[in-house]
Amino acid sequence: MSDIVKDFNGYRQKMNDKLLNDNNKVIKRIFNLDTNAYMEGALDVKTKELLGLVASVVLRCDDCVKYHLETCYKEGLTKDQVMEALSIGTVVGGTIVIPHLRRAYEFWEALEESGNNPETV
Fold first, then answer.
1. What is the pLDDT along the chain (121 residues), one digit of tens a residue?
2. What is the value of pTM for the model shown?
3. Please, how many CA atoms are within 13 Å of residue 16, restricted to the half-sphere of its CB?
């Protein structure tokens, strides 16, 4: 697995564990709400992840972008589909999101380099 992917996932898991172990009811509910919002419903998971990716680019949250990129990868979305969604986020967000677009592209490449099987990510 690429270092950029491994580092992101390791840090995210470590800090999520710490946050959730503090047993703060509000934080736990927010995490739960986030998990449930992206489950299959009237919209399929792939569509919801693309929506989350676009919103994350517009809001300029690199951690969120990486999370949604990895989930898109695991869900089997193609590079073309993801890049089209990122292009919409860039149009909506404007040129200020271009640095985030660069990092998103780099992270997607790292996901692809990690292997052909998304389940190994």
1. 579 999 999 999 999 999 999 999 999 999 999 999 999 999 999 999 999 999 999 999 999 999 999 999 999 999 999 999 999 999 999 999 999 999 999 999 999 998 755 554 4
2. 0.91
3. 12
Q: What one-letter code names the amino acid at 33?
A: L
Task: Give CA angle at 46 (25, 97), nearest 5°.
Answer: 80
CB atoms within 10 A of CB 85: 23
Residue 23 CA to residue 5 CA, distance in Å, equals 28
Instruction: Give the chain's domains with CATH numbers.
Output: 3-120 (1.20.1290.10)
SS3 of the chain: helix, strand, coil, percent, to 5 = 80, 0, 20
